[in-house]
């Protein structure tokens, strides 16, 4: 074994006649300019070095290579370009073996596909996730993957962005073998020695025969195109991926690479790419709240949940799924039995769908304990209260928790609106109290608002973030106000929608417009799904403190008074005959809306889709600016993440404030001022929005501050 000087982020080492190139660029060996240069130089030098017979590529640390360096996107490109590095690897006159472990994603997999042979260790994850960033694999991936694995497998990987395991990759021919052991370098060296002993030379993917069955390949491309048109509506890069694979079938390899490059550059320039990359980094940034730097989390070994309703059961499932033991407390045996049944129901459904086996369910339920006495929570490290949304009830629960919880236990409330500081004051230990606002269904929805009270201790907050990490949730730090970040802003844009309803738009038109923007559902479909009774209770609670100058639209109340709470009652804004999951428009609802317009003395007017969206989004952005100004959210990106992960805001638009920057703040402000001419109380421009627009800045300037 001989050492040689490292090429920047790529170290080279000789093992007899085999050169091992180790990509060592923490945290994930992304292909930054340094790495590309190091690889290109080393490959070139190896060509003229007679002592080198073969080259092995490995990654240092936990991964092979996680892909192109996403931080470089949008900056001036630096040579060498990744496609050139891949082509140089493929052109090597000496066999190149890629030894994969951990993540081999995006450009990382493209490097491996350009190598001549591939071995992967068990647990390696192979994928082309560029679609999630609004891109396509731009370093030969769209041309080499189908040549190696066939068009169907290549399109599946590239359109879903999912990670494939080694068995699947082997069955597709994406890798040649699965290595034994846990040492990628050893597996690569073994393979290289074997190949040299056999006298094997370079075997180039450009010559592979995965597209030889042309009719089958064309059928796979046609099917993918149809799927993209029906399911990935509004997205830019999926259709380009299909175009690139068509080029792989129709064009010689080098021409196909040029087509891929042109399509890649179109994607790179698209606003969707900028939005999706913003979302990628924003989601990682929200996990780094100041308290996580100031303090270490407390232990999290035993958890408690109070309440076995929909939320409590969902939270318990999320915890059980994360491998944590959970004690659920309910008021009496009957309620506890219902709570346990709700937990089991979630698992039974998964078993029915084949996503969990009976042993998996048993293993999770073995960690579940039910109790009807608070004393069962005496040794819990963290307890989440998920009882009825009523201040007096919550105060009573926290007084009990204060009595029985061990010193240092974190006491969390899952309230959606209520004042955490009042709840904390019901205990003798307000430093241990915080809000953990889960979203329904709590075992599925990614968002977790971590609500920090005036007295929450930094290590209490850090423990909330640690819980989110264990549960694989996306945590966002929020301050205390009515509705925190998400529900507070939602209340305002929902109000904007209700105002349009009274002024002449139908709920169906509004839902259509919001879906056309990219949301999976419109606000009235969501209301029907969530159940109108919840919003009704909130409106009644707020009635006494409502600003009398604000218009109050009574349409939702008229439906609730009839018991039309949405899907669960068979009708709401829509009709759900015979338990249907998708609703149909209801003429009676339209008649009620008409009557309400008359009662309010409103002459209905027409709204175009654009009118609807301008109002809906301006209301959202304006209230978001208020939330920022008051410090309820730390940065604009925190608000973006709340709406992306909890409220269905289309990811390819990057979140409401990234979107606002793209539209331009002066334009949004001009809209608000125009709407204010009619209704100055509702449409009051946020001082922060005015300040940013007037000084020519965007919200993003506050992300970087
Ligand atoms: N470029 C730059 N930084 C990256 C990165 C990338 N491709 N992938 C991850 N990182 C950074 C993260 O931002 C994070 O940084 P901070 O610690 O400063 O926040 C750090 O690496 C660790 O990332 P995670 O927290 O996500 O770590 P994890 O262990 O949970 O996951 C991973 C690791 C599976 C690799 C995950 O990071 C991931 O999926 N990364 C993105 C992979 C990807 O999309 N690759 C394709 C890139 S596009 C491409 O390659 C285009 C092309 O063909 C030219």
TrEMBL record:
<keyword id="KW-0442">Lipid degradation</keyword>
<comment type="similarity">
    <text>In the N-terminal section; belongs to the enoyl-CoA hydratase/isomerase family.</text>
</comment>
<protein>
    <submittedName>
        <fullName>Fatty oxidation complex alpha subunit</fullName>
        <ecNumber>1.1.1.35</ecNumber>
    </submittedName>
</protein>
<dbReference type="Pfam" id="PF00378">
    <property type="entry name" value="ECH_1"/>
</dbReference>
<comment type="pathway">
    <text>Lipid metabolism; fatty acid beta-oxidation.</text>
</comment>
<keyword id="KW-0413">Isomerase</keyword>
<dbReference type="InterPro" id="IPR006176">
    <property type="entry name" value="3-OHacyl-CoA_DH_NAD-bd"/>
</dbReference>
<keyword id="KW-0443">Lipid metabolism</keyword>
<keyword id="KW-0576">Peroxisome</keyword>
<keyword id="KW-0560">Oxidoreductase</keyword>
<dbReference type="GO" id="GO:0004300">
    <property type="term" value="F:enoyl-CoA hydratase activity"/>
</dbReference>
<dbReference type="GO" id="GO:0070403">
    <property type="term" value="F:NAD+ binding"/>
</dbReference>
<dbReference type="GO" id="GO:0006635">
    <property type="term" value="P:fatty acid beta-oxidation"/>
</dbReference>
<feature type="domain" description="3-hydroxyacyl-CoA dehydrogenase C-terminal">
    <location>
        <begin position="483"/>
        <end position="576"/>
    </location>
</feature>
<keyword id="KW-0276">Fatty acid metabolism</keyword>
<dbReference type="GO" id="GO:0003857">
    <property type="term" value="F:(3S)-3-hydroxyacyl-CoA dehydrogenase (NAD+) activity"/>
</dbReference>
<dbReference type="GO" id="GO:0016853">
    <property type="term" value="F:isomerase activity"/>
</dbReference>
<dbReference type="InterPro" id="IPR029045">
    <property type="entry name" value="ClpP/crotonase-like_dom_sf"/>
</dbReference>
<dbReference type="InterPro" id="IPR006108">
    <property type="entry name" value="3HC_DH_C"/>
</dbReference>
<dbReference type="Pfam" id="PF02737">
    <property type="entry name" value="3HCDH_N"/>
</dbReference>
<keyword id="KW-0511">Multifunctional enzyme</keyword>
<dbReference type="InterPro" id="IPR018376">
    <property type="entry name" value="Enoyl-CoA_hyd/isom_CS"/>
</dbReference>
<keyword id="KW-0520">NAD</keyword>
<dbReference type="Pfam" id="PF00725">
    <property type="entry name" value="3HCDH"/>
</dbReference>
<dbReference type="InterPro" id="IPR001753">
    <property type="entry name" value="Enoyl-CoA_hydra/iso"/>
</dbReference>
<feature type="domain" description="3-hydroxyacyl-CoA dehydrogenase NAD binding">
    <location>
        <begin position="303"/>
        <end position="478"/>
    </location>
</feature>
<feature type="domain" description="3-hydroxyacyl-CoA dehydrogenase C-terminal">
    <location>
        <begin position="612"/>
        <end position="697"/>
    </location>
</feature>
<keyword id="KW-0456">Lyase</keyword>
<comment type="similarity">
    <text>Belongs to the enoyl-CoA hydratase/isomerase family.</text>
</comment>
<dbReference type="InterPro" id="IPR008927">
    <property type="entry name" value="6-PGluconate_DH-like_C_sf"/>
</dbReference>
<dbReference type="InterPro" id="IPR036291">
    <property type="entry name" value="NAD(P)-bd_dom_sf"/>
</dbReference>
């Amino acid at each position: 074994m001989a050492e040689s000087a490292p090429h920047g982020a790529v170290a080279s080492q000789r093992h007899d006649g085999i050169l091992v190139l180790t990509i060592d660029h923490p945290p994930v060996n992304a292909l930054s300019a340094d790495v590309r240069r190091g690889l290109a130089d080393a490959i070139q030098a190896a060509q003229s070095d007679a002592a080198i017979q073969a080259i092995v590529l490995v990654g240092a640390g936990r991964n092979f290579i996680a892909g192109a360096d996403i931080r470089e996107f949008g900056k001036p490109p630096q040579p060498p370009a990744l496609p050139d590095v891949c082509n140089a690897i493929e052109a090597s006159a000496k066999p190149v073996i890629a030894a994969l472990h951990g993540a081999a994603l995006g450009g990382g997999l493209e490097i491996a596909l350009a190598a001549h042979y591939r071995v992967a260790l068990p647990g390696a994850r192979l994928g082309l996730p560029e679609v999630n960033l609004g891109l396509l694999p731009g370093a030969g991936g769209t041309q080499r993957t189908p040549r190696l694995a066939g068009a169907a497998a290549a399109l599946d990987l590239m359109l879903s962005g999912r990670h494939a395991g080694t068995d699947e990759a082997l069955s597709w021919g994406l890798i040649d073998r699965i290595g034994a052991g846990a040492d990628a370098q050893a597996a690569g060296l073994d393979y290289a020695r074997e190949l040299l002993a056999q006298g094997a030379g370079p075997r180039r993917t450009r010559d592979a025969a995965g597209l030889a069955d042309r009719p089958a390949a064309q059928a796979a491309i046609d099917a993918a195109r149809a799927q993209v048109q029906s399911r990935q509506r509004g997205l830019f890069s999926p259709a380009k991926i299909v175009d690139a694979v068509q080029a792989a079938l129709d064009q010689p390899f080098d021409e196909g690479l040029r087509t891929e490059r042109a399509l890649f550059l179109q994607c790179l320039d698209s606003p969707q790419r900028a939005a999706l990359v913003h979302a990628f980094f924003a989601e990682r940034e929200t996990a780094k709240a100041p308290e996580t730097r100031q303090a270490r989390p407390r232990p999290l070994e035993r958890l408690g949940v109070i309440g076995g309703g929909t939320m409590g059961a969902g939270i318990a499932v999320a915890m059980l799924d994360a491998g944590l033991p959970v004690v659920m407390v309910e008021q009496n045996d009957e309620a506890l039995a219902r709570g346990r049944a709700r937990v089991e129901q979630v698992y039974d459904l998964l078993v029915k769908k084949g996503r969990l086996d009976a042993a998996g369910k048993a293993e999770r339920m073995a960690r579940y304990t039910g109790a009807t006495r608070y004393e069962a929570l005496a040794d819990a490290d963290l307890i989440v209260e998920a009882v009825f949304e009523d201040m007096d009830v919550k105060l009573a629960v926290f007084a009990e928790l204060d009595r029985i919880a061990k010193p240092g236990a974190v006491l969390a409330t899952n309230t959606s609106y209520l004042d955490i500081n009042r709840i904390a004051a019901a205990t003798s230990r307000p430093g241990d109290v915080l809000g953990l606002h889960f979203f329904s269904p709590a075992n599925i929805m990614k968002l977790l608002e971590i609500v920090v009270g005036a007295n929450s201790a930094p290590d209490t907050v850090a423990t909330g973030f640690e819980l989110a990490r264990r549960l694989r949730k996306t945590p966002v730090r929020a301050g205390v106000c009515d509705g925190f970040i998400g529900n507070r802003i939602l209340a305002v844009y929902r109000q904007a929608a209700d105002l349009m309803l009274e002024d002449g738009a139908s709920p169906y038109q509004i839902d259509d417009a919001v879906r056309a923007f990219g949301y999976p559902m419109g606000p009235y479909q969501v209301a029907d799904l969530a159940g109108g009774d919840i919003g009704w209770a909130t409106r009644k609670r707020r009635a006494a403190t409502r600003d009398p100058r604000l218009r109050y639209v009574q349409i939702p109340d008229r439906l609730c008074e009839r018991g039309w709470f949405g899907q669960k009652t068979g009708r709401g804004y829509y009709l759900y005959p015979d338990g249907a999951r998708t609703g149909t428009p209801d003429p009676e609802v339209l008649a009620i809306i008409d009557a309400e317009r008359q009662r309010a003395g409103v002459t209905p007017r027409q709204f175009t889709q654009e009118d609807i969206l301008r109002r809906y989004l301006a209301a959202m952005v304006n209230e978001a600016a208020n939330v920022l100004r008051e410090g309820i959210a730390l940065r604009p990106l925190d608000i973006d993440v709340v709406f992306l992960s909890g409220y269905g805001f289309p990811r390819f638009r990057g979140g409401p404030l990234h979107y606002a920057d793209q539209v331009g703040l002066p334009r949004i402000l001009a809209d608000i001022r125009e709407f204010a001419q009619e209704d100055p109380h509702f449409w009051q421009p946020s001082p922060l929005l005015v300040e940013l627009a007037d000084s020519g800045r965007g919200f993003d300037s506050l992300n970087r501050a």
